[in-house]
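Worked example 2:
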Amino acid sequence: MTERVVIPIAEHRYDAALPHVPDSPAPPVGRLLDARGRRLHDLRISVTDRCNFRCTYCMPKSVFDKDYAFLPQSSLLSFEEIERLVRAFVAHGVEKVRLTGGEPLLRRNVERLIEMLAAVPTASGAPLDLTLTTNGSLLARKARALRDAGLRRLTVSLDALDDATFRAMNDVDFPVADVLEGIDAAAAVGFASVK
């Protein structure tokens, strides 16, 4: 019988406000495998459920209207809890972490979280492959701060280059030119990989 390992992420004895998170929250007892026996290398973490777009395929206005109750801040994982999760998964072989949402750039002080995660080395001591997926709406304003915090890779979801089509897809009349400006800003501050 395989020994079951429980990795505590948050519990009543853990004060998430503490600035120090142990380097190894759980001893590595092996690599994580999927249902087909393949090693897991990637971890995706949604840092918020909020988004400023209402794309018809993801958050249609018919469901996510102005009265929709998104999660309160108190229900989201704290940055310290997210860091603790990442350290636990890295101890078991994860090498790549992707931050998503909703729209992750809506999460207050997300640059601080990126700084915390960029400091987490992989089990081999190499830098963690940290990336963020965004709709690009806030990228022009935040590109420099994201890069300075330690983010090296970005993925921008862009449904169309045609402005009318893009505005119809995001359903909040957001212009494609503003997303393209964000992509240009990311390249200008040194993001080598913007997909």
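The helical segments are 79-90, 110-118, 139-149, 163-170, 176-188. The first strand starts at residue 42 and ends at 46.
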